[in-house]
Amino acid sequence: MLYEKTVAFIGAGSMAEAMISGIVAAGKVPPNQIIVTNSTNTERLQQLEADYKIKGLKSQHLNLQNIDIIVLAMKPKDAEIALQSIKDSLQPNQLVLSVLAGITTTFMEQHLPAGQQVIRVMPNTSSMIGESATAISAGSYTNNESMLLAKELLESIGKVYEIPEEQMDIFTGVAGSGPAYIYYLMEHMEATVRKAGLPEKVTRDIIAQTIVGAAKMIQQQGETPTTLRENVTSPNGTTAAGLTALEKNGGGKAISQAIKHAAKRSHEISSQLEGTKEKVQAV
Predict the structure, then answer these.
(1) Alpha-carbon gap, residue 128 to 27, rounded angstroms
(2) By the number of CB atoms within 10 A of the CB, which of 147, 154, 177, 276 ranks highest?
(3) Which CATH superfamily is domain 2-167 in?
(4) Residue 96 has pLDDT above 60, yes or no
(5) Which distant-in-sequence residues (6+ apart) come within 8 Å of 66 by Cβ?
(6) Model confidence at 141, in pLDDT bands (50, 70, 90)?
(7) Strand, coil or helix: what is 101?
(8) How many whole angstroms separate alpha carbon 97 and alpha carbon 193?
C-alpha cells in the first residue's frame, strides 16, 4: 500500500532530511516518489536530490494533485502560511502530517478544508538511521486506514507510539528533544575523559558504546532503570561515588527540568499560534 504512494515534504531542514534518509534506506517508498520543497534555497534542494535521489522543488512549483501524503516540516512559525498555501489544492483523501513542535491537529484543521485528514507527528533526528521514537495523534476526521498508512511510513524511521494528543508536549520534551540531551551529556563526558589523555576517537566510541549498551539493557532485560542502576552500584564503590556526585550537583534535577522546559515550550508554541488564530477571527 505505502510503496505506491507519493510523499511531499514542505520544508527541507534537518528533520525533513532525517526522515527522508530513513524512508529511502528502508525502501518503503521509492526515491522518485518523494518530493522535498523549500521557498528559496536551491542549493539545499540540489544537495538533497544528490544525496537521496529524490526530487527537489521550490514550494511554489509543487503540484499537490498527485501527492498522497503531505508532510509539514518547516519552522513552526511558518506553519500557518504553509497551511494557507496548500488549502485550496487539497482533496479529502490526501493525508497531512505535521512534524512541527506545538502544531496541534485543531490548528491544522482550522486552516484546512472542513473534514481534512491530519495527523500530528513528533519524530526525532534518529530517524536518519531508523531509530526514531515517534509519537502520532490523529485529527478529528482521520480514519483508521490513514492511521495505518502513517504508521507504516513512520515505522521506516523507527518505533511508532500512538498517544493522546494532550500528551504530545511531554513526549516532545523527552523524545523529540531527548537526543540533544544525550549529545550534551556525551560532550561533557568526552571533554572530561580527553583531559585524562585518551584519544578523541577512542573516547567517543567508548562513550557511545556505553550508552548503547545501557539502552539495550533496558529494552532487552525487562528491568526498570532503578533496578539496573542498583544492580551496578556497589556500596562505597566507584559507581556509587559517581552517582553521589551527580546527585550533589543536581544531575537528576537538571534532566527533569530539561524535559519539563522543552514540554512547556511546545505548549507555548501551541498557545501562541492558537491565540493568533483567535485574534484574527476577532478582527
Answers:
(1) 13
(2) 154
(3) NAD(P)-binding Rossmann-like Domain (3.40.50.720)
(4) yes
(5) 6
(6) very high
(7) coil
(8) 42
